[in-house]
Amino acid sequence: MFDYPIKFNPILKEKIWGGKKLNKILNKETSRGDLGESWEISGVKGDISIVANGKLKGFSLKDLLEEYKDKILGKKIYAEFDADFPLLIKFIDANTELSVQLHPNDELAQQRHNSFGKTEMWYIMQADKGAKINIGFKDSISKEEYISRLEEGKIVELLNFEEVKKGDSFFINTGKVHAIGAGVLLAEIQQTSDVTYRIYDWDRTDDEGNSRELHTALAIDAIDFEKKNDFKLNYEKIKNTSSKVASCKYFTTNYLPIKGEIQKDYSNLDSFVIYMCVGGNGIVSINGNSEKITMGETLLIPAENKEVLISAENCELLEVYIE
Q1: The CATH number of domain 243-321, selected from 2.60.120.10, 3.75.10.10, 3.40.50.300, 3.30.70.60
Q2: Which residues contact 220 (CB under 8 A, 6 or more apart)?
Q3: Is the pLDDT score of 89 beyond 90?
Q4: Is 198 a catalytic site residue?
Q5: pLDDT tens digits for 7-27?
Q6: Average pLDDT, stretch 260-284?
Q7: In the chain, which end has fewer C-beta atoms inside a 10 angstrom radius, N or C?
């Protein structure tokens, strides 16, 4: 039924911390101001992705899931999520620091927001010299110490910062404080959720002098105050081979560098597959029908498609699915 890779129109988001890299490096066409995010595949209410190519052009992701169900998602995934797409796929450009934030787990998010929690991962596509991210605390702290430092405006003193470069990858569990630093361009894979608790926003204001809302009270019960070295992901980089970067119950992400031609066999996988191009370009084919993918583009392979041909002179993909 699905005889070609599906591409969606990116949903572009202006942000107070956004920049020009989504346009200049990833070729996102826009006449708008500073772009912070490109939502590549989204089932978030109010921001549903629209098909950009082929015979399904103009259909929404929601339309496809309601019509074709497990043929897109896979049987087990459809049984759990029905017509809700379980992942949100983004590219993010931080020209200045994002707020220090965290995300609640599934239980809290359901209780408070009727939403899923937000477990996520980052793959660094480009970073300016000296660029850093915040991830976690320097040391384990008590709730009381956290509150005291927050009230004193000294929360930054507690944070752990990591310098980053292209190819670095990080896993962000729910409850872990984090912030993308200035000068970082990355790919993000996450649960479908837009629930974020901001705890510090670098004392900045908008053009009218207003500060963004903080979620101090909501965040207290959601924060993991323990120092945990569970965030840096190590993986192999073997040509024409899928090497696991991250794996959890919400998603699996592999790094797949391609030179030449490879045939992917997904006959043992009951899931859709997403390709995010994080370097170079290539051609992805299903049943002889091809779609080009270039750095900054994303393709969806429906679950019913078990054989995919990929060819490239030089292409780096993130291969995402649910095991």
Answers
A1: 2.60.120.10
A2: 143, 147
A3: yes
A4: yes
A5: 999 999 999 999 999 999 999
A6: 98
A7: N
